[in-house]
Amino acid sequence: MKLTAHRGLSSLAPENTLSAFKKAIQFGCDSIELDVQLSADHIPVVFHDQTVNRCTNGQGKVSDLTWHELRLLDAGLWFSDEFEGEYIPSLAEILSLAASKKININIELKTFPGCDIDLLCEKVALVIMESEIDDEQLLFSSFSTDALLCITQYAPTIRRGQLWQTIPYDFLNILQQIDAYSVHCDYRFLTEQQTVKVKSAGFQLHCYTANFPELVKEHGNWGVDRIITDTPQSFVKSKALEPVLDI
Q: N vs C: which end of the chain shows fewer Cβ within 10 Å?
């Protein structure tokens, strides 16, 4: 199994920030997961929650704040004094970093009630087109099948992965609809039987968010391809995975 750093190396730096992404790269992760949504003025920004309340010194919905207003917030102090002054990055900034460092990026398309999915997909695809990143470095994921269908219209050459907490019985029909590359599911609810079915159908299988190697030791034997984790360092130290990191 390989490792993806969840929102960057988010156990050692504030999630979805440049510091977290740089630490993941320095550590040797070959893939980073991040979340993207639109500001009030339709700039794709890297942020997980619907509101800025938890991870910044601000208040309110991301979609109600302009890029300038978001940029003024401190997105690091909540994590520790060391990261005071950390800011919310744009998707464009992270793609530039990823292109220069040849790192793979899993872009989760965040959708909330009332979200304009078409606009989100259009703006995200435009930023990607304007970047210098290779399509092979990118993977879209989302809990919203509608978002994955929509992004196909704007960025058809970029791979897509369906996010589920538990894999539904009709998973194959859904994956065929979006011409999926991968399935992303909660490791806690995955069974060996489901793993065999997904892999036999020809899809990659990624599990989130496993932070303790002993909890997913069997998943590799089942055929899981990748673990999405806040703590890649714990997997390397435990030697629970094959040595996939160049550190």
A: C
